[in-house]
Amino acid sequence: MAALASGLLGSLDPTSDRAVFRQIADHLREAIDKGRFAEGAKLPSESELVEHFSVSRMTVRNALSILQSEGLVSSEHGKGVFVRPRPPVRRLASDRFARRHREQGKSAFIVEADAAGSRPEVDNLEVKEERPSTDVSARLGAPRRVLARRRRYLLDGRPVEFATSYLPLDIARDTPIAQPNPGPGGIYARLEELGHTLDHFEEEIRARMPSPLEIKTLQLATGVPVIHLIRTAFDTKGRAVEVCDTVMAADAYILNYHLPAK
Amino acid sequence: MAALASGLLGSLDPTSDRAVFRQIADHLREAIDKGRFAEGAKLPSESELVEHFSVSRMTVRNALSILQSEGLVSSEHGKGVFVRPRPPVRRLASDRFARRHREQGKSAFIVEADAAGSRPEVDNLEVKEERPSTDVSARLGAPRRVLARRRRYLLDGRPVEFATSYLPLDIARDTPIAQPNPGPGGIYARLEELGHTLDHFEEEIRARMPSPLEIKTLQLATGVPVIHLIRTAFDTKGRAVEVCDTVMAADAYILNYHLPAK
DNA sequence: CTCGGCTTCTTGTCTAGATATCTAAAGGAG
DNA sequence: CTCCTTTAGATATCTAGACAAGAAGCCGAG
Prior knowledge:
alpha+beta, 28% helix, WH_DNA-bd_sf (chains A, B), transcription regulation (chains A, B)
């Protein structure tokens, strides 16, 4: 067993002033980068690494925790530490809200996932009226109360995105938008039917580490950041008619945007 | 000293099956979220936490390392553990490449930073010809060699962004673009002067944890992801004339985009 | 054959230290 | 007063071990 590790890993440099656990992490990282451990492959067990490098177990665990926080590996209790496979990514095109994509009966998420050969799911649906946060309130022009639509999106059983739409009550109350299923084309189609022809969207993007709640909701592995996207939809009168707050597992997404040079 | 910690922190629940170090992390996180420790404030020292919770030092360090990987706190050797202050963010507007912003003598980065009251710097400038990576090559239409322009941007001495522009040699060789300082309006102004009128840009955004090199180059604290942006510039003939690969400290940026509803 | 228990290997959690190194403040020499 | 040394307190690194708990295979009872 230890022979396997010796073949794939180097040895420590006792003259280096780099901490031992960092050196071990460096060796493992290099081995992974060079493909000596394939995606999904199991790394040598902690006790094998202890023997190979002649260090204590805590030192080995410290090294492994570095690789975990880098998102390179993930550990599974009772099984081992594995090279994290890259999940299939969802590409968000910059024209994803174009009117022509809204004609179908199914939602954009379902259509796209089917096309990519993945099994889409939407759950956690919650629709209710509430008092907006100061941020949402400011973006929507300070309505007293808003309709909040929450849902979670999954691909092949894996949660990838968690979103909440906020709409002013004077627009959404007692309309199909306040129903769990707003019908074909989603709430944007309904907004246009209600006379709020959409003009443009503003998107605001951040990236950060997830909160414990986000880790739980999106079942995120250690070392996976989230992309936080806040989209505001404006109608042709210049009014903000919807704010959508989305938290995405960063390893599952690539966002595409088209910018005119003007 | 321990009295201070007792006032601000709760106590452990011995009946809970949640690991002790997680409970400690939860307590500290809650105290930070509720503002009981302000931005930049020093957390109780490890030994104070050891005494307060009656656990061993490794358990306390384990808890603190969780908060570090969440980007909530950062430790300073010999000083203490501090609540991480939110750095000023740079907002990238969706019209930042509009022609009208290109008229000035200074680069967009300098102008913008001056306006925000920050002290901008650009360093690490390197301009050289090289063989493109397969990815860059594919985006640029498979040129044999490209001109690479590398630079790092800093605000008030803090590195925030690291970017490399790639241009096909038949466009850039023996032009001001191959000079360290390409002149007023930057390389986009020069491209247009050379007859490559810009039509649009495509941007591709990912977020992930930084590599050790990126941590070093951007002096990133633990728990800070990076935003990886790849922009391709197209001229009016539909040719890709430049690819810009940018890695940004995620805590220093908010990206804004404008999407027409069409 | 199937099912349940046992064993073994794995990672998870926690303890109780030891030594090193960095920081900042106090104190002494000049 | 200034400068250097000392010292206390902080985090960083590492060790050696203990017990818990999950996963998986072996193997005997039925």
